[in-house]
Amino acid sequence: MAAVSHLDKDALKFGTDGTAQWTVSVPENGLYCISLAYVNQRGNRQDGEIAFLLDGKSPYSQSEEIELGRVWKDATGILKTDGATI
């Protein structure tokens, strides 16, 4: 794992296996919203995958394997020929 800059923001860059851990203070029990922004590495066609753990344990089974899907972008715009989109 390495600290890098991406789109003028601080980021973490992982290899195929990597971990990151944050310590946070939670003032009281309740429901909290957690967000994560990610960019999959170029040249790797696989989706990313993370696990979300609280105190080293999964709070529910779905948090053990969270898939971070890729967003694909066409290299060119929509091609048209004779008025028909192809």
> How many angstroms does the end-to-end distance come to?
42 Å
**Strand order across the largest sheet:** 1-2
Overall radius of gyration = 19 Å
Structural class: mainly beta
The shape is: elongated
Mean pLDDT across residues: 79
Report the biggest beta sheet as strand number plus sense, adding barrel if it closes: 2 strands, antiparallel
Strand segment tally: 6
What is the helix/strand order? EEEEEE
Low-pLDDT segments: none
Number of helices: 0
Features:
single chain; 6 strands; elongated; two-stranded antiparallel ribbon; two-stranded antiparallel sheet; 23% strand; 86 residues; mainly beta
Briefly, what is this?
By secondary structure, the protein is mainly β. It is built from no helices and six strands.
Describe the secondary-structure layout.
Elements: E1 2-6, E2 9-13, E3 48-50, E4 66-68, E5 80-81, E6 84-85
Antiparallel strand pairs: 1-2, 3-4, 5-6
Structural account:
- By secondary structure, this protein is mainly beta.
- The chain has strands at residues 2-6, 9-13, 48-50, 66-68, 80-81, 84-85.
- Strands 1-2 form a two-stranded antiparallel sheet. Strands 3-4 form a two-stranded antiparallel ribbon. Strands 5-6 form a two-stranded antiparallel sheet.
- A hairpin with a 2-residue loop joins strand 5 and strand 6 (84-85).
- The protein is elongated, with a radius of gyration of 19 Å.
- It starts with a strand and ends with a strand.
- The mean pLDDT is 79.
